[in-house]
Specification:
Layout: H1 2-24, E1 26-29, E2 32-38, E3 48-53, H2 62-71, H3 73-85, E4 96-100, E5 108-113, H4 124-141, E6 146-149, H5 161-178, E7 184-189, H6 192-205
Parallel strand pairs: 2-7, 3-5, 3-6, 6-7
Antiparallel strand pairs: 1-2, 4-5
Helix pairs in contact: 4-5, 5-6
Bound molecules: ligand AR6.
Length: 209
């Protein structure tokens, strides 16, 4: 009997803790919710997930590699068609295009290209903001309600995450304040450390205590 109760207690404790964590990472912006979470973006069930691609749209490492591996050949086929039809020289940095989600849980993948960090004087902030803004505009223009972003440019492209997270969140906030079609934006981070950076930044951007 004692054993039974202690198991129940531990379930109860876990539930309460999880709920607190969820609340801590959920923010209201305009009519939409902004969520911060740790995880693998390929597992997200949002209408769209965003791919931190490169201009070839032919796949690569990091998020891009994971999306193409799990999404299957259909995504690559669609990327090839987009390249041939619209961007024979490659997708410019800051632009965004959309394919289906292939075998992923998300219905669509929005492929965007973030800037490579070169010290900050090569329009990196503007280009990173463009990548987020164009992805949001594309999702909204297609009537999508929920979208998940990785931390664009902060892996192989070397953008310092503190600066990148501020641009990501400011761009999302500005967009959601003007535009009320999207209902949920999720930032999917790969590590506890990245989550902490995003958590700290979002409080500053939203002017919370
Ligand atoms: N889910 C969520 N976040 C992830 C995942 C995942 N499955 N995998 C990595 N991250 P990166 P970039 C995080 O390098 O910096 C590719 O080769 C990762 O820890 O994927 O924009 C492309 O083809 C980091 O915080 O994208 C390009 O050539 C963040 O996602 C180039 O890398 C972004 O890391 C793009 O570089």
């Amino acid at each position: 009997m004692v054993y039974y109760f202690s198991i129940m207690d531990s379930y109860l404790y876990t539930d309460v803790r999880d709920v607190k964590n969820m609340m801590k990472h959920e923010f209201q912006v305009g009519k939409a919710k902004v969520l911060l979470t740790i995880g693998d973006i390929t597992q997200m069930e949002t209408d769209a997930i965003v791919n931190a691609a490169n201009s070839t749209l032919m796949g690569g490492g990091g998020v891009d590699g994971a999306i193409h591996r799990k999404g299957g050949a259909k995504i690559l086929e669609e990327c090839k068609r987009i390249r041939a039809r619209e961007y024979p020289a490659g997708l410019p940095t800051g632009k965004a295009v959309m394919t289906s989600g292939g075998n992923l849980k998300a219905k669509y993948v929005i492929h965007t290209v973030g800037p490579v960090w070169q010290g900050g004087n090569q329009c990196e902030p503007e280009l990173l903001a463009e990548a987020y803004r164009n992805s949001l505009m594309l999702a909204s223009s297609k009537g999508l309600k929920t979208i998940a972003f990785p931390s664009i440019s902060t892996g192989a492209y070397g953008y310092p995450i503190g600066m990148a997270s501020r641009i990501a969140q400011t761009t999302v906030k500005d967009f959601l304040e003007k535009e009320d079609k999207l209902g949920k934006v999720v930032f999917v981070l790969l590590s506890e450390r990245d989550l902490e950076v995003y958590e700290k930044t979002i409080r500053q951007v939203l002017k919370l205590s």
